[in-house]
């Protein structure tokens, strides 16, 4: 069991059961201090530090929970952090609606993460795997999906001007994937905002998108007081994102 245990990760009761380890075994192991309990159905090795990444790895691989690293955190992991200066240092985890993180995870790592439950995008579209500092692969949003997740949380959680600077730096967005994401994105605000920011930055992806297949809805969207109105996308935005010079 210990030899097969990924360092700095959690072993769940469900996983240990597949190895033939009984509840009585687990009681004996914790009493003998071979294992440390993290709460109901979760254990770690004594004297070993487990980060939220190690705990998330166990959620993804052992419990098969559809939870992934998204938004700003996924962009940081992919190296797209040139303009990232947000004060919030929590890790952003995304899942479909009604997916709950286990109590043991929330107890030990709840202050380290922000769990976003949303139907913004189809569960698997635009996901990839990236290496955590500990060396194991975590399911994360690719750059394209992470950009839309970031805009989904703006302006409430992320400043729109800084989000715009991040989008501006994304010169290698894959057009085919972004087309699919925009077509299936559930938020009119996010669709319009991405297209405006990408157009403003003259990103290469804009030359390849079929805008007629992307539903931009009707009606104005206000994303800040005392802003500037962008008629093409029916958005009221901070003047720094609209004014030139």
UniProtKB/TrEMBL annotation:
InterPro entries: AbiEi_3, AbiEi_3_N. It comes from the Bacteria. Residues 8-86 form the Transcriptional regulator AbiEi antitoxin N-terminal domain. This is Type IV toxin-antitoxin system AbiEi family antitoxin. It comes from Sphingomonas lycopersici.
């Amino acid at each position: 069991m210990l030899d097969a245990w990924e360092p700095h990760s959690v072993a769940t009761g469900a996983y240990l059961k597949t190895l033939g380890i009984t509840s009585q075994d687990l009681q004996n192991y914790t009493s003998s201090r071979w294992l440390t309990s993290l709460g109901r159905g979760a254990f770690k090795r004594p004297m070993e530090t487990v980060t939220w990444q190690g705990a998330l790895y166990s959620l993804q691989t052992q419990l098969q929970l559809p939870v992934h690293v998204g938004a700003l955190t996924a962009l940081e992991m992919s190296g797209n952090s040139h303009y990232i200066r947000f004060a919030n240092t929590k890790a952003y985890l995304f899942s479909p609606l009604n997916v709950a993180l286990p109590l043991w995870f929330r107890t030990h790592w709840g202050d380290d993460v922000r769990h976003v439950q949303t139907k913004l995008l189809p569960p698997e579209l635009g996901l990839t795997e990236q290496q955590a500092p500990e060396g194991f692969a975590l399911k994360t949003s690719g750059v394209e999906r992470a950009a839309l997740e970031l805009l989904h949380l703006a302006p409430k959680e992320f400043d729109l001007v800084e989000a715009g600077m991040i989008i501006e730096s994304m010169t290698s967005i894959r057009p085919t994937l972004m087309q699919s994401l925009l077509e299936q994105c559930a938020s009119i605000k996010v669709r319009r905002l991405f297209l405006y920011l990408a157009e403003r930055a003259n990103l290469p992806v804009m030359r390849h998108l079929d805008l007629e297949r992307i539903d931009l809805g009707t009606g104005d969207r206000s994303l800040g007081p005392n802003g500037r109105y962008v008629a093409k996308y029916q958005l009221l935005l901070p003047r720094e994102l609209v004014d030139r010079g």
